[in-house]
Amino acid sequence: xxxxxxxxxxxxxxxxxxxxxxxxxxxxxxxxxxxxxxxxxxxxxxxxxxxxxxxxxxxxxxxxxxxxxxxxxxxxxxxxxxxxxxxxxxx
Length: 91
Known about the structure:
The protein is α+β, with helices and mostly antiparallel strands. It contains 3 helices and 3 strands; from the N terminus they run αααβββ. The chain has helices at residues 3-20, 24-40, 47-51, and strands at residues 67-72, 75-80, 85-89. It has a 3-stranded antiparallel sheet, with no helix packed on it. A hairpin with a 4-residue loop joins β2 (75-80) and β3 (85-89). α1 (3-20) packs antiparallel against α2 (24-40). It starts with a helix and ends with a strand. 18% of the residues are buried.
C-alpha cells in the first residue's frame, strides 16, 4: 500500500468520524482532500468511501441525517440534501 493510499484511508475514517460528530464542514474538507489526493496520484477511491460521499457538494453522507436511501427495482438510490442522486446496483 502506497503512502497516498494510506492517507486516503485515513482521510476517509476522519471524514466518517467528523460526520458522526456533526462537524459537516470538517467532514467535507476531508472528502475534498481525499479526492484531490486520489486525482493527483491517479488512484481510485475505496468503494465504501465513494458510496458515502456526494459527488456534487462533497458531503459525507449519513443516511437519515443528510441523505435519503431508497430501493428501486434492482438498484439503490442515495439522494443528498443538495438534490444529487447516486444509483448503485444491489450487491
